[in-house]
Specification:
31% strand; 7-stranded mixed beta sheet; 2 domains; alpha/beta; 2,3-Dihydroxybiphenyl 1,2-Dioxygenase, domain 1; 137 residues
Length: 137
């Protein structure tokens, strides 16, 4: 697991709760107000931790999102992300194993490739792969 997201209807309230509860510095200073929690600021005494984000359900989700929208009353979700070599191959495998592709693959910040699928019980799981230039360099 390499990343997490907490997405909900009131991004400001969510960021306030998580920043105060866990002493996270959440940087939402970007056009999407995607509140980034860096790994370096989210580690335990042994230096173990992951980065993530706390943000508001967007009015317009990714063009590849196959789930409900904010206008449909979508409340958001908590997603964990697993790093894979190939997001498209992993999404196809999830579908073969009984899951449903929910998003992606999409290129996002810094050239990362991400996607999401739901398992047979509806749990949302994220997938991410680093850009080829980062994987080989």
């Amino acid at each position: 697991m390499v990343h997490f997201e907490v997405e909900g209807r009131d991004g400001d309230a969510l960021r306030k709760l998580y920043s105060e509860m866990f002493a996270w510095r959440i940087d939402a200073n970007n056009p999407a107000q995607y509140g980034v929690v860096t790994r370096d600021e989210n580690v335990n005494a042994d230096g173990i931790g992951i980065g993530g984000a706390v943000y508001e359900v967007p009015e317009t989700p990714s063009p590849t999102w196959r789930g409900p929208s904010r206008a449909d009353g979508y409340q958001g979700h908590v997603t964990v992300y697993v790093e894979v070599d190939d997001v498209e191959a992993a999404l196809a495998q999830a579908e073969r194993l009984g899951g449903s592709r929910m998003q992606g693959p999409d290129e996002v910040m810094g050239g990362l490739i991400m996607g999401k699928f739901s398992d047979p019980e509806g749990h949302l799981i994220g997938l991410v792969s680093r850009p080829l230039r980062q994987m080989t360099g």
